[in-house]
């Protein structure tokens, strides 16, 4: 049975992206370092595929996440209650091992006259996640971006994720999740608001 390249997911937006020789050579070096032979048939196209995959994992460097919050709706009919988007799946990569971080996020804010289309919160998350990250900074960057751009009464971000560098190497603890949170404004200052948002998020 033969496979064409599409079987390996090479039909995406990056399919035609040229990969410079030095980038391919770096990946060949890594394959050799790992103990395999980059000149064997199954690995011949791997350097170009890996390089294109990394461009895609790191698409966030090519965008400014705050852009997604630039179009707001001010006619909210006096709705100044909690807005919450939860169980948003995301993938990122840790900056220490370049291993996958997979998880879900809950993002909430208490508007102050301005609201944004709900899908935009997920776009902000992906804009920061598609970079080399640590989970704590990802959590803080998402919260700060919403705080700075929507100027709400409060922002709460909770991220729960598994780290490939923990599940696949080192201490090898599959199934262990790490939870990080960042609370700003009313969610930090007012214990009733904090309890309400965390319980709606399921924490
Ligand atoms: Zn790591």
Automatic annotation (TrEMBL):
InterPro entries: GTP-CH-I_C/QueF, GTP-CH-I_N, GTP_CycHdrlase_I, GTP_CycHdrlase_I_CS, GTP_CycHdrlase_I_dom. The keyword Metal-binding applies. GO terms for molecular function: GTP binding; GTP cyclohydrolase I activity; zinc ion binding. Zn(2+) binds at residues 94, 97, 165. Pathway: Cofactor biosynthesis; 7,8-dihydroneopterin triphosphate biosynthesis; 7,8-dihydroneopterin triphosphate from GTP: step 1/1. It catalyses: GTP + H2O = 7,8-dihydroneopterin 3'-triphosphate + formate + H(+). Toroid-shaped homodecamer, composed of two pentamers of five dimers. Belongs to the GTP cyclohydrolase I family. This is GTP cyclohydrolase 1. The gene is folE.
